[in-house]
TrEMBL record:
This is Oxygenase MpaB family protein. GO terms for molecular function: oxidoreductase activity. It holds the Pfam family MPAB_Lcp_cat. Keywords: Oxidoreductase. It comes from Amycolatopsis heterodermiae. It is an enzyme of class 1 (oxidoreductase). Residues 59-288 form the ER-bound oxygenase mpaB/mpaB'/Rubber oxygenase catalytic domain. The keyword Cell cycle does not apply. Its EC number is 1.-.-.-.
Length: 297
C-alpha cells in the first residue's frame, strides 16, 4: 500500500512539474520572444561588471512577476501625454506587432537591470538611435521627437511609478521606504543614459514630477484607442484571456482617479478593492511559481 501511495505521489509531482514547466516556457516565449533563451543566457551568464549589484532594489522590482501588472498600468498612464501617444501611434507598431514591442521592452529592461555594463550601454545606444529617427506632427499640429528629453522624462516617470506601485501591492517582497527611494534612484541611472534630464531620485520627487506633467495630459482619441486595444481587444489566445483580464483589471484599479474619465476607464471601487485585488494577487503568485521553475542547464 505504501509503495502504491509513493508511486502516485511521484506521478502527481511529475505531472505538476511538467505543467509548471510548460506554463513557464509559454510565458517566457511570449515575453522574451524567439531569442529569449539566448538572450537570457548572455544577460545572466556573461562575465563582467554590472550597473546594479545583487540585492539592489531595481533587481528586486524588475525580477518580480508584479511587473506584468505594472507594465499594463505604465502603458495606460503614458498614453495620456498627447505627444508621447502620437509618437507611439505613428511609429511603434503596437497594433501590428504588440508582442514584438513587448519583447523588445522586456529585453531592454532585463539587459540594463541584470546584464553586463557593456551590453547595457549597447542597449541604451540602440534605443537612442531609434529615438533619433522618430519624429512627426501630432493631431493638434504640434511637432514631436521621440528623443525629446521632456517626453522621455514622462515615459520614464510613468514606468517607474507603475512598476513601483505594482511591486508594493503584488510583489513577493515589497520594499521599505528607503528601498523605494533606492529603486527610484537606480532607475534614474538608466534614464539619464537614455537622455532624460534631472530624473527623480526619491519617491517624493517622483510624485512631484508626475504632478508637474498633469497640465499637459489629456485623453486623446489615440489614447482611448490604445486603452481599448490593451484592455478589450488584445491579440491573445482564448485560453489566456481570463488571466489577462485579471491583470488588465488590476492595472486599471491602480490608475489614479484623474486618469479614469480621459481614458474612459471604469471605476468600481468595491470590486477593485476586493475581488480584483484578490484575483490579481493569486494570479501573480501563480505566475511567479511557474516562472521560478528551474531552467535546464
Amino acid at each position: 500500500m505504501g509503495e502504491r501511495k509513493s508511486a502516485l505521489v511521484t506521478v502527481f509531482s511529475s505531472g505538476v512539474a511538467d505543467v509548471r514547466e510548460r506554463v513557464r516556457d509559454a510565458l517566457f516565449a511570449r515575453v522574451a520572444g524567439p531569442d529569449g533563451p539566448r538572450n537570457r543566457a548572455r544577460i545572466h551568464g556573461a562575465p563582467g561588471p554590472r550597473w546594479f549589484p545583487d540585492g539592489s532594489a531595481i533587481r528586486q522590482v524588475h525580477g518580480d512577476t508584479a511587473m506584468f501588472v505594472g507594465g499594463l498600468r505604465a502603458l495606460l498612464l503614458q498614453s495620456l501625454h498627447p505627444l508621447a501617444m502620437a509618437a507611439v501611434a505613428a511609429h511603434s507598431g503596437y497594433r501590428g506587432d504588440p508582442w514584438g514591442r513587448l519583447q523588445r521592452t522586456s529585453t531592454f529592461l532585463a539587459v540594463t537591470t541584470f546584464g553586463t555594463a557593456e551590453d547595457a550601454e549597447h542597449a541604451v545606444a540602440t534605443v537612442r538611435a531609434v529615438h533619433g529617427r522618430v519624429s512627426g506632427t501630432a493631431a493638434d499640429g504640434r511637432p514631436y521627437r521621440a528623443g525629446d528629453p521632456h517626453l522621455l522624462k514622462w515615459v520614464h516617470i510613468a514606468e517607474v511609478d507603475s512598476f513601483l506601485r505594482a511591486h508594493q501591492r503584488y510583489g513577493a517582497h515589497p520594499l521599505d521606504d528607503a528601498g523605494c527611494d533606492r529603486y527610484v534612484a537606480e532607475t534614474a541611472v538608466v534614464a539619464e543614459k537614455l537622455g532624460v534630464r534631472e530624473p527623480p531620485r526619491t519617491r517624493d520627487e517622483l510624485e512631484h514630477a508626475i504632478a508637474e506633467y498633469r497640465p499637459e495630459l489629456r485623453g486623446t482619441r489615440e489614447a482611448r484607442e490604445a486603452a481599448r486595444f490593451l484592455l478589450v481587444t488584445p491579440p491573445i489566445p482564448w485560453a489566456a484571456r481570463a488571466p489577462y483580464a485579471v491583470l488588465a483589471a488590476a492595472g486599471v484599479a491602480m490608475m489614479p482617479m484623474w486618469t479614469r474619465w480621459p481614458l474612459r476607464l471604469p471605476y468600481l471601487p468595491v470590486a477593485e478593492g476586493t475581488a480584483v485585488r484578490l484575483a490579481a494577487g493569486g494570479l501573480v503568485k501563480a505566475v511567479r511559481w511557474a516562472m521560478s521553475a528551474p531552467v535546464p542547464g
